[in-house]
Amino acid sequence: PYGGMVFNMEDADNGNYVMMRLKLTTGVQSVEIGKLMNKLKSGTKVSTKNNAAISSGTATLEILVKDEEESVFINGVEDAEMSSYQPFFVEPGAVGFAFQNVRDWAIKISGAEVCSYCVGANGQNYLIGQSYVDGLRTCSCTAAGGMECKCGATLNCGAGTTLWTDPDSCESKCVKSPAYCVSSGDPHYSTFDGKRYDAHGVCTYQAASCGDFTVAFKNVDLYGRAPRFTKRVELDFLGTTFSIAAGNRAAVNDVAVQYPYVKTYTNGDKVEIIFNGQLEIRLYNKGRNPSVRLRATNYNTWINGEMWLHGSCSDITEGVCGNWNANPADDLGTAGINAMLEEFKQYDENCPAPPEPIDPCKNVGDDARAEALEICAPLKASPFSQCNSAESIGDEKEGLWYQCATDVCNCFNDETCACPQFDVYAQLCINKGIDLANWRESISFCPYDCPDGQTYNAEGATPVPTCLNKDPTPTGTVRGCFCPNGQFLQDGVCVPSNQCKCLYEGIFYNNGQSIRKDSECEECTCKDAGEMTCEPFTCPGLNCAADELEATEVDECCPTCLSGWVEALNPEVTVKQGQKVELTCEVKVDGVMKDDIKWYKDGEEITNGISSDRLVLKVKKTDAEDDGTYTCEATKGGVTATDDFSVTVVGPKICEHENGHTWEEGDIYTLSETVECTCDQAGVHVCDCVDDGEECTDPNPVVWFNDECVKTCVPEYGLCSAAADPFYNTFDGSEFEFKGDCKYNFFSCGDVKMYADHVKDEASAKTKSIEIAFKVDTFKLEGARVTLNGDQATIPMHKTYGDGAVLTIENLGNGYELKIVHDGKDPMILFKWDKVSSYSVQSHGTCKGFTGGMCGAWDGKKNNDLTGPDGDVIKSAEDFGTAWVVDDVEDCPVPPEPTDACDDMGIEGADRVKIETYIDNVLGANPFKKCSEKVDLEPVAAEMLQQICGLFGDLDAGCALLGQLAEKCTAAGVKADGWESKNKEHQCVPSCPAGTNYGTGPKPAPSCDKPFGGGKTQDACFCPEGQVLIDENCVDVGECGCEYGGKLFEVGDKFEKGDECKSCTCRGEGEDCADMTCKTKCKDDQLEVDVEGDCCPSCLSDWVTAVNPEAEGEQGESLALTCEVEGVEIAAEEVTWIRNPGNEDITKGKQAYDVSKDGLTLTIKKVDKKRVGAYKCVVEKDGSTSEGNFDVTLPVEEDLIVAVNKEVEFTAGENAKAECTLLQPVTEVTWTCNGKKMTSEGNVEITVKKAYTKITFKPAGTEDAGTCTCSAKGIGTEDSDDVELIGGDNELTIKEVANPVECMEKTKKDCRTGWTIESANGNKVTSKQVKVCKFNNGKTSSCKPSKSSKGAFERKFGKKRKIAHGGEYVAVVTIDGVETVSDPITLNIIANPDKGKGKNKDKEDKKDKEDKK
After folding, report:
1. Strand ranges (DSSP E) for 518-627?
2. Is beta strand 188-190 parallel, antiparallel or unpaired with respect to 196-198?
3. Sign of the C-alpha dihedral computed for residues 269, 274, 276 and 279 taken in this order
4. What is the per-residue pLDDT for 22?
5. Of 1252, 1270, 1274, which is closest to residue 1198 (Cα–Cα)?
6. In 411-540, which residue ranges form alpha helices assigned H by DSSP?
């Protein structure tokens, strides 16, 4: 048996290797030295000296290596015989000191140093200088102890290609120039092979892949509708995600970083994020310069995502940019765009299936596409035309010209929206060697808006100088935004060199801070101007445990001892069934053979789908069987390491119908002839109504599907309007002028009623306000003010009702639109109000034949339009309008017939001709000229003449009638929306709120709920981009809260949507809502009832009431007693009628009584003294009981009670008293005011004495005014009398202390606005009753409590006051609920000429203190 040791000994001078062996031979006990290979001796020398010392077992063996010779000493004495024998040069590991009959020897080696040998990828050991061939490369052992491999044979490449050799495999390829792919605008894709297509998915999609990296485009839905845009470009490399996004944002693994960002790996690979005119990511690896270049051309909220891919990736790349095989026909696969997007989208359970691309031009107008193509026509002209033959622009139906027009339509034909596509085309041409970098100089409407401090340069030097590299060597030019010469972009700002900060891997460091660059083995210190001084650091020595190996991380230069030296780079993977899986494993130890890397699934070895380097496993078109745990295993030198991947394959969602039938995600199926559904990615039925093909014809030509997709043929929408004086146009086309000055029923249909309140306007009349009643709500529109049930509402507003109806009010700036959508009718009603006096209603065809009011009968017959409420046709417009008056019929006389306003105003001759010529010119120009073919314009011309004459020849007076005509033209099929900008003959200027501009924009308009508005277009007043119109003010989107039911909620506020049963919390971008939980528990005597507008049922105690509780009959006549039931439906058998005294059930007493079929009305057939007394109806429902009580009486033969004064006048804030005298003895006295039974509580005090009774209000408010009735009951009789309480407001005298008030900004001098206030009733006004508010456009805001000083109520403006604080201020006094607003005081805050001097002095003082310190 042998025990062995190996010494690799290197001579310090010449590097020879010497192997020494020692053996104690049997018997002679001598020393033998020589070569031992494979346990066999091969040339040895045996010592014959010092045997006694050797045999003693205490000898010391010493070997001295010097000058290529070794000397052997035993017990300090040189053995010349052995020293003369020089051992052989042998392979490390094959020989050793072999000991037989081993004893305790002391062994000492002198003059030698330990060195290492090399281990090849084949597992063999090699000495320095030795080499072996591995495929296409030759690997040699270097003096440093490592293998160095060099690639062998190369290829001869033809024109247009260059040689590239993979440094890992030594595989060589002749590669093409980098290929270009771009996602732009809507987004429109152009693949590596030049295929152009549109795709509206809003997920993250793999765009390209190439070995160890992938690129993805992240698309977003900015507007809640088409178009969609690319917002971010991502590079995934070695388990890290690098991204650049809209707004010039850069991130690594979703954490924001500063740029330039540089990530260096130990093998020389590098990732850069730089601002090169635009943000770019560049990856350098495998000898490619670069492997991929990504660029995000910034358009604030979205980008054009651009990619240049290295030629080595051709034919192997996969993604939405195609496969780069020179065949554009197969870029979309065989199943189409959406299937391709599904294949390459990254899994996200909230990622919807992509919709089919739509044509936005159809929403803009009939001529929109033609106009957009004309805007994009510069693509065919210079400078672009020089490239048209090399790079096609397509045509009107496809290609880049078509895509450009689509983007323009998405912007409502804003010409600047063509510019991003012009830039894409310029880049395509530049890629082909045609220089179009300066194209913007030729297109006036395409300047590029750079961030502050930067300027656009079409030929900026690249790479761009940075604080990391202030003077790079130029390699070319690029267009984009650049800092001035000598400045560098840092943290979004251009700074001079001396302001540069130290930056490493996206993080700033301050002077003196240490920075450890692990991948570069350097320890650095931050110095001035962003410079660093660096020193290399030494790696510590290692002593690895038995289960560990020496391993190296990709970004750390020092090796470490690792047991887990195999790492899954994407350990958690979730995909949808049918998508592919790609698992990447990293082995951190050198010298692991490929055959020693294995893959397993759930413990069983896998052999398919493994890459050539065995580090990547691919599974294509996954199914449920591919779900599980995958393991990557590597072994070296008997040590094994593993890491696991968890792969989840999400199966298709299942949609289940109530009939039990199920469908898989993506299935399309029909539930009936008119219902087609798709099972979506969330497992929800998404159903649409589909036509059964049966045609709808006159008189009902329109198809209507209700919410259940029941098809009905209905009439076309109807239009009724009133403008200016007002002039009415009915549904059936009648036109008349009506100058009544009362409140009239304008329109009614079902749950909708509209009332127009007219007022006198000098010699004519106009509409002051409109009231719209819908279900339980009443909306009032007066000027720019909107109220809901009396409370001011914020516009825009929306509200949803329990039956699914949705009501919205949109502010168009120059008018309001109120829209009701219900039961598939979109809209059911569309009402427009111009904020002055003109309005219109567009009604769904289902209302035809069921309308009432000034809009006429709407039955298709013009001759009966003037039908009154009683169904009779009325001859004159004056009598017709008066017939539809509301409430105050007696006070509304029939107005006179209109007279000729021109004669009345004395406008004749040339003046009249001038007006008529103006009218003819306006009506003779489009769109009205085209409309004349379908609409008679003569009545409009006559009305305009009268209106203009009536306002002293003011031509603007006809504008409201032109607006009315435009609506009529559009309804007739001639699009006249936006006539203000299309017709050049008129003098009408749209009235817009301050800060808005009139033009074409989205419909609905941008709002806090939808900051970019809807997908259709309209002509209205719009705020600047990034702002929305709330009430009459433009507000930054970032300041938005939430709105529901006309109420504004701030971020964090909680609110309820009763009709929707939702409890919501306002967030910064929208709201979070959850289903409400009802906990209603009613008492035994209460009934659970549903209340309109509330989610949860209410407990109702008195759910039965008597309609006529105090029923007075006539002797011998019949008398009906009626009960009303609230909140529930009841049957007749649930109603019992009782008469008291005696609790007699008279429900079936048919001889004296009669009960209606529904049980709710009892008729006393003949009233006499036997039938007077107490009655009640008792209703029992679901175990609860409620009743309505009646007191039946006969007329009083003599008075019991009489009012002392029939009228009592009072001023709000003082006491008011009504008194009645009792004329006879009575059994009961009560007071009722304005229909409400009064008791002594609150401010009410009731006194009953033998001779009189009185009610006193302490104090009285204006709400107490009205009719108070004192009632008395005697024996078998009762009587009452009325007192009118006439109340007036507590008049206040408010005077300004000073007006105007002028103050200087930012000074300590006193600045205040003030008023003196006196009350007419003498009561003292307190500061709590007075607020001081800013006053703008008739509205108050920024209200603050007043301060009382020296008899005045004031608001002070401190030393921090600014010019912006100036404006008009009013005092708002609230007493007993009555609000009084003063005349405004103008506050002028003027500029301080010394502004900033104090601040500078403060800085100087601070510096002096610091210097002294």
Report:
1. 522-526, 532-536, 549-551, 560-562, 566-568, 572-576, 581-587, 597-601, 604-606, 616-619
2. antiparallel
3. positive
4. 41
5. 1274
6. 419-431
> Quick one: CA dihedral 90, 95, 101, 104, positive or negative?
positive
pLDDT of residue 1134: 93
Query: What's the pLDDT score for residue 531?
Result: 93
Residues 780-793, mean pLDDT to the nearest whole number? 93
Give, in order, the Cα–Cα distances in Å from 292 to each of 295, 1097, 1305: 10, 63, 57
What is the C-alpha to C-alpha distance for residues 283 and 269, in angstroms, rounded to an integer?
Answer: 8
**Tokens at 208, concatenated:** 């390209």
Looking at the predicted structure, is the pLDDT value of residue 401 above 90? yes
Query: How many CA atoms does the CB half-sphere of 1172 hold within 13 Å?
Result: 16
pLDDT at residue 1305 is higher than 80 = yes
Given a contact cutoff of 8 angstroms between Cβ atoms, the answer to whether 206 and 344 are in contact is yes
Based on C-alpha coordinates, what's the Rg of the chain? 47
Identify which of 906, 717, 696, 910 has the alpha carbon closest to the alpha carbon of residue 826: 717
Cβ-count burial 4-37 (b if 16+ within 10 Å, e if not): eeebbbbbeeeeebbbbbbbbeeeebbbbbbbbe
Mean predicted confidence (pLDDT) in 516-538:
91
Tokens of 448: 């590029």
Q: 245: which strand partners?
A: 232, 249
The DSSP result for 948-1004, as a single string, is HHHTTT-GGGGHHHHHHHHHHHHHTT---TTHHHH-SS--------TT-EEEEEEES
Higher-pLDDT residue of 1226 and 886 is 886
Closest among 307, 349, 356 to 203, alpha carbons compared: 349
Q: CB atoms < 10 A from the CB of 716, how many?
A: 14
Band of residue 68 on the pLDDT scale cut at 50, 70, 90: low
How confident is the model over 92-109, as a mean pLDDT?
A: 39
Sign of CA dihedral 984, 985, 991, 994: positive
Can you give the pLDDT at residue 235? 96
Tell me what pLDDT residue 85 has: 61
Q: What end-to-end distance do the CA atoms of the chain give, in Å? A: 83
Rounded to 10 degrees, the C-alpha dihedral 1228/1233/1234/1237 comes to: -50
> Tokens 């409502």 belong to which residue?
412
Any idea what DSSP says for residue 26? T
Buried b (16+ CB within 10 A) or exposed e, 630-644: bbbbbbbeebebebe
Say yes or no to pLDDT of 658 above 80: no
What pLDDT, in 10s, does the model give residues 174-194? Answer: 999 999 999 998 889 999 999
**Choice between 123 and 1338, residue whose per-residue pLDDT is larger:** 1338
Q: Take residue 1225 and report the two structure tokens written for it.
A: 């003895």
pLDDT by residue (tens digit) across 1387-1404? Answer: 998 888 776 554 444 444
pLDDT at 603: 92
When pLDDT is cut at 50, 70 and 90, the band that residue 61 belongs to is: low
For 20-58, write each residue's pLDDT tens digit.
Answer: 334 444 444 555 555 444 444 455 566 665 556 666 655
Angstrom distance (rounded) from CA 772 to CA 797: 15
Q: Is the separation of the CB atoms in 207 and 320 below 8 Å? A: yes
Residue 100's nearest CA partner among 158, 52, 183, 31 is: 31
Matching residue, tokens 């979004």: 492
Q: Is the peptide bond before 827 cis (omega within 30 degrees of 0)?
A: yes
Q: Of 355, 321, 294, which is closest to residue 205 (Cα–Cα)?
A: 321
Phi/psi for 1364 (5° steps) reads -65, -20
Distances (CA, A) of 424 to 361, 391, 437, 680, 848: 21, 11, 11, 35, 53
- What is the DSSP code (8-state) at residue 929? H
Helix (H, G, I), strand (E, B) or coil at 1327: helix
- Region 755-776: mean pLDDT is 85
**Region label for 433, one of left (φ > 0), alpha (ψ between -120 and 50) or beta (otherwise):** left
